[in-house]
Design goal:
The chain has 214 residues and is an alpha+beta fold. 40% of the residues lie in helices and 15% in strands. The chain has one domain. The chain has 6 helices and 6 strands. A hairpin with a 2-residue loop joins strand 3 and strand 4. It is globular.
């Protein structure tokens, strides 16, 4: 799987032009179109009323022949809600809210929010390790957040600090949680968390976040 921008036209142009590199370690090949992944519904901030269909592009490396789904930065792997909605839940938790209050605020089932919070607690160490590697690439542009013993708050603060560092380097601003989706390869809430090893391109392509919405 490869995390890409949310502008489908931009992604398609890059794919057809051979501009997307294979994420497999040691490969370095270029990706080409290879059909489409299964269609699914993804809920935005409006809850069920804001749900929209998503059918990600599928690609194939011309060198190693592995196939990869191109997942937009707006969503996470195997999650039915946009990453900004999940990020809002994590932010609220870091501010001291319980899962039931967060669920009511977001219009989600309490069990769904509880699942998000449990998972981030399980993978927070791995998420912070990945984000820490990326932070080191920014040098003095990255201003580390104040330390905290709470794992959810630590992730929230690190994501915010990285978003500010990226904005200083590229100008403008971007969604902190879409940035987190890109840096974690869509696996912010994956069963084992994100991959600790970066691909041959080093830091993921955060310029996707300036491509705009579809």
């Amino acid at each position: 799987m490869v995390t890409v921008g949310v502008d489908r036209a931009v992604v398609e142009t890059a794919l057809l032009g051979g501009e997307l590199g294979c994420p497999a370690l040691g490969c370095g090949g270029r990706l080409a179109p290879w059909g489409w992944a299964r269609r699914r519904m993804v809920r935005g901030e409006g809850g069920e009323g804001g749900a929209a269909g998503l059918r990600p592009r599928r690609s194939r490396c011309m060198d190693c022949l592995q196939t990869h789904v191109l997942l937009p930065a707006s969503v996470l792997l195997r999650r039915a809600d946009e990453v900004t909605v999940i990020g809002a839940a994590l932010l609220a938790k870091a501010c001291g809210c319980g899962h039931r209050k967060i669920a009511t605020r977001l219009g989600r089932a309490a069990s769904t929010v509880r699942g998000w919070l449990r998972r981030i607690g399980q993978v927070a160490e791995r998420v912070l390790a990945v984000l820490g590697v990326v932070a080191a690439e920014f040098g003095t542009e990255f201003v580390p957040p104040a330390p905290t013993a709470d794992p959810v708050a630590a992730v929230v603060e690190m994501v915010g600090a990285l978003a500010r560092a990226v904005a200083r380097r590229l100008g403008g601003s971007c969604s902190p949680w879409r940035l987190a989706a890109v840096l974690c390869g869509g696996r912010l809430l994956g069963p084992g968390g994100p991959d600790l090893l970066l691909g041959p391109g080093g830091v993921p392509n955060t310029s996707w976040l300036w491509a705009g919405d579809p």
